Amino acid sequence: MKRIAVLTSGGDAPGMNAAIRAIVRTGIEEGLEVFGVRHGFTGLMAGDWSLLERREVGGIMQHGGTVLGSARSLEFKTEAGRKLAIQKMEQAGIEAVIVIGGNGSQTGSHALAQMGFPVIGVASTIDNDLYGSDITLGVDTALNVALETIDRLRNTAASHQRAFLVEVMGRNCGYLALMTALAGGAEAFVIPEVEISPETIATELADAYNRGKSHAIVVVAEGSQNNAAALLEHFQQHHERIGFKLRATILGYVQRGGNPGVFDRILGTELGAAAVQFLLNRQFGSLVGRLSGEIVATPLDVVVSSQKELPANLLKIARTLAQ
Ligand code: F6P
Fold first, then answer.
1. Residue 323 has pLDDT above 70, yes or no
2. What gap in Å lies between CA 158 and CA 147, rounded to an integer?
3. Please, which residues bridge with residue 286 across strands?
């Protein structure tokens, strides 16, 4: 193998740049030419790439986002789009591609692998909903951003005897909300995996108020049926019963930005370096992730057909402590 490509796809995640840097430098060390593809699968279909040298990936690791740019491509979901990408890569002599991304992106990797093109995925999404890695790239930094916000909100909430609904990202997955609630000592949390009625939350808040709490934090996952907007509307009609005055803060994209912390820089570096080795070992069609502390490759067939579960023990602890 002589020429490979790397791309970042889907939602950017802090730590992607560390992975790119590790892939480029490990690849060069192994005698490969590494091409950086701009804007994910969109760039792959357009042949939009350039050769990356060691120095070009210097000074990128500490930055959030992705220096290669990212995209969500509808065209790549079609066979014609993937054929075009393969044709472009074959014309340029690119023999394999490393895809850094989450669920949707690795579904694209899997489809490419099924067409016979050598692919390796790198597990990256702040949502932590990708099977094949206990923790994915970007999660730790996103959690720290959410946590810092909760600590700040507590100050203002306590000053005014308010309850804050804090909505965190996570599409259909409650992992970010659960971990933020645990680490932030939230009084309640709402996640899509275990839907809870607004009535129950209202009762929990009223109980907290009657116990003399100066404030309360409710962490809400964006993918919950009762998101922050729905809950706020419901609660405003029950203000008397709840006791606290209510406010909502939606964190949104703030969580995806920012400089990666130590954990994501190391994880990105480890996953990126390992991805090149798995390519050289010809373990094509697999996803590189971290399972039980080890960097391992899981077949993309398994990744795309499996559902990652929330850690049941932490879910139980969170319920007990949020009182
Ligand atoms: O998958 C990562 C994520 O940030 C989700 O948490 C969120 O629902 C989604 O991406 C937002 O997607 P987009 O960047 O396309 O708006």
1. no
2. 16
3. 120, 299
Query: Which residues contact residue 75 at a Cβ distance below 8 angstroms, ignoring those fewer than 6 apart?
Result: 41, 42, 45, 81
In 3D, which of 150, 214, 159, 202 has the Cα closest to residue 181?
150
36, 134, 106, 104: which is closest to 285 by C-alpha? 106
Predicted confidence band at 321 (pLDDT cuts at 50, 70, 90)?
Answer: confident
Domain map (residue ranges) of the chain? 3-125+260-305, 139-256
Catalytic residue (one of 12, 48, 127, 207): 127
Verify whether ligand 1 is closer than 6 Å to residue 169 (CB atom): yes
More confident call, 199 vs 130: 130
How far is the centre of ligand 1, averaged over its atoms, from the C-alpha of 107 (Å)?
A: 16
pLDDT at 239 over 80: no
Instruction: Give, using CA atoms, the residue closest to atom 15 of ligand 1.
Output: 11
Helical segments of the chain, H only: 16-29, 40-46, 79-91, 103-114, 139-160, 175-184, 198-210, 228-236, 239-242, 262-280, 300-305, 312-321
Measured from the Cβ of residue 130, the count of other Cβ atoms closer than 10 Å reads: 28
Looking at ligand 1, which residue's alpha carbon is closest to its atom 3? 11
Q: Which atom of ligand 1 approaches the CA of 223 most closely?
A: 8
Q: What's the rounded Cα separation, in Å, for the pair 203 and 192?
A: 19
How far away, in angstroms, is 264 Cα from ligand 1 center?
A: 18
Question: How far are the Cα atoms of 146, 224, 240, 256, 257 from residue 169, in angstroms, in the given order?
Answer: 9, 10, 30, 9, 12
From the CA of 170, how far away is ligand 1's center (Å)?
Answer: 7
**Domain boundaries 3-125+260-305, corresponding CATH code:** 3.40.50.450
- 264 catalytic, yes or no? no
Ligand 1 atom showing the smallest separation from residue 170 Cα: 6
Q: Place domain 139-256 in its CATH homologous superfamily.
A: Phosphofructokinase domain (3.40.50.460)
Residue nearest atom 6 of ligand 1, based on CA coordinates: 170
- In one-letter notation, the amino acid at residue 76 is F
